[in-house]
Amino acid sequence: MGWVRGPGMELVAFYQGWYGERIIKHLQEQAPDWAIWAIKLRKGLPSLPDEETDLLAQEVMKKLPREAVGADLALFLHEEPGASLLMPEVARRAEVRALICPADDYRVLPRGLELQLSEELMSVGLLFSFPRPFCSLSRGPGPIGDFAERFGRPELIVELDGHEIRSVRVLRGAPCGSTHYMARRLVGTRVEEAPSLAGLYVQTYPCLASHVEDPVLGEDMIHLSATLAKLAVERAILKASGGG
Fold first, then answer.
1. pLDDT, tens digit (0-9, with 9 covering 90-100), for 185-207
2. Among the listed residues 108, 135, 244, 151, the one whose alpha carbon sits nearest the alpha carbon of residue 199
3. Residue 3: what pLDDT?
4. How far is CA 127 from CA 13, 94, 151, 227, in A?
5. Which domains are seen in the chain, by residue range?
6. What mean pLDDT is predicted for residues 127-146?
7. Element at 40 (helix H, strand E)
């Protein structure tokens, strides 16, 4: 997918397929002032002993342009649990300041694996976040917070025309692009129908979050994403009505 350079944040996105491609494309469209490098990881990566993980990390680093080393932030947009094991070593070698690894599918990043990776990332002094789902991200230290100012938990401004939505402006949108998709389709809808429609539009985008339940949260990621969109619309309508 190449890279896009801008004067703002420097970001390296490691991805394996369509899930990551879609997120990267949206980031490039909405943040043209950022330098974004997209590095593709091959699929079929098993759980590997340390020495093989080291060799695979070397393979990944060969794809990383020299100017991308030392970037502000790495996104790890993998689709297989085996790829997770590369994360700490690749991030260390890439010399990034922080890392975000969204957990949109529990099968790809179960809680036990997240705990293991967290310990490894802390041991090398790296800032990190594992948002569940990606569109729940609202804050974080350093570059994670900078990223979350633009992408993460939806925040909107709406204008009303009587009982209809006149316009919707996205202040912060889901990294996959579902918030912008939803916002365009809410224009002209009835105010009382807009929140529930927001959740429906996010899911039919289609949302990249999975239908697999997270046992800690007790809900699947796709329904959490829809709920976050619905709440964003409700808050924006309340504020536009003079109640917030």
1. 999 999 999 999 999 999 999 77
2. 135
3. 43
4. 16, 14, 18, 28
5. 3-148 (3.40.50.720), 155-240 (3.90.1010)
6. 97
7. strand 35-40
